[in-house]
Amino acid sequence: MGRLVVLGSASQDLHLEMPRHPHTGETVLSGDIEYRFGGKGGNQSVAGARAGVECAFVGRLGDDAPGREYIRRLEAYGVDTSHITLDASAPTGTAIIYINDERDNMIVVAPGANSLVGEHELGALDGLSAGDVLLMPLEIPLDIVERAAVTAKGHGATVVINMAPYAAVSAHTLENTDLVIVNEHEDALMREDGLQPADVLVTLGAEGSRWGDVVVPAERVTPLDTTGAGDAYCGTLAACLARGDSRQEAMQAATRAAAANVQHHGAQPPLG
């Protein structure tokens, strides 16, 4: 069994629930603000650890109360935090999440320390080897994503990029990437930009997901909060690949994880 390493972002999430999302120039009243934990990298590493594989998170947090608390939280899930940098020069990233009565969300991210992920974090990838999986969302500098992909491939690891939030990564990045995971919107943008990954998995929301000839339907559940569902999918799928599961097995496990994730508040499941 290989290991899963997630190189990405972590943030403090500020959740605001409201009847509907505001239009430009409009003020909408919400309920009380709730502070939770998120960031695509942090969320995906939690999902990977919960899937039962050895999982490490590599990233950068502010040397502040939210950053230190986040490390304790990841450790409680069983995530290896030894490659997280606490940086006094920037705050821990923050995401403001607006959730309407239909349980749809809008998210605005202030990256903070995530924007400083760099040389130090790349050094944590030197221990990768064949059988390991490197998973990267795109909430960190794209030049670091490219260099990380090249490093991981050089060590024989499998490289998975979750193209979220969407960015037109370089052809060199894609040449060193084994699998790209996108939703339908990101898939359309990728095609418009003429990007041609070697292999693509498309998540289709309520319609499930498609990876080549393998299609797995979504589980029918009533969502409470859709925040982090895609991260639960990506982290679980990458963990299953590190375990050696087939495409079908990995997609089915990821689908179950995403369905479970929309049935609690916040991007990460409650501890305990």
Describe, in plain words, how this protein is organized in 3D.
The protein is α/β, with parallel strands linked by helices and 272 residues long. The protein has eight helices and 13 strands. Strands 5-4-1-8-9-10-11-12-13 form a nine-stranded mixed β-sheet, with helices on both faces. Strands 3-2-6-7 form a four-stranded mixed β-sheet. Strand 11 and strand 12 form a beta hairpin. The two termini are 26 Å apart. The mean pLDDT is 95.
β content, as a range? Answer: 15-25%
Tally of DSSP β-strands? 13
Shape: globular
Percent in helix: 25-40%
Topology order in helix (H) and strand (E) letters? EEEHEHEEEHEHEHEHEEEHH
Strand order across the largest sheet: 5-4-1-8-9-10-11-12-13
Task: Evaluate the radius of gyration.
Answer: 17 Å
Residue runs with pLDDT of under 50 for 5 or more positions: none
Largest sheet report: 9 strands, mixed
Cα separation of the termini: 26 Å
Output the number of helix runs.
8
Quaternary assembly: single chain
Topology of this protein?
Blueprint: E1 4-7, E2 11-17, E3 34-38, H1 40-50, E4 55-62, H2 65-77, E5 84-87, E6 93-99, E7 105-110, H3 119-123, E8 133-136, H4 142-154, E9 158-162, H5 171-175, E10 179-183, H6 184-192, E11 200-203, E12 209-211, E13 214-216, H7 229-243, H8 247-261
Parallel strand pairs: 1-4, 1-8, 2-6, 4-5, 8-9, 9-10, 10-11
Antiparallel strand pairs: 2-3, 6-7, 11-12, 12-13
Helix pairs in contact: 1-7, 7-8
Concise synopsis of the structure shown:
It contains 8 helices and 13 strands. With 272 residues, it is an alpha/beta fold. The chain has a 9-stranded mixed β-sheet, sandwiched between helices.
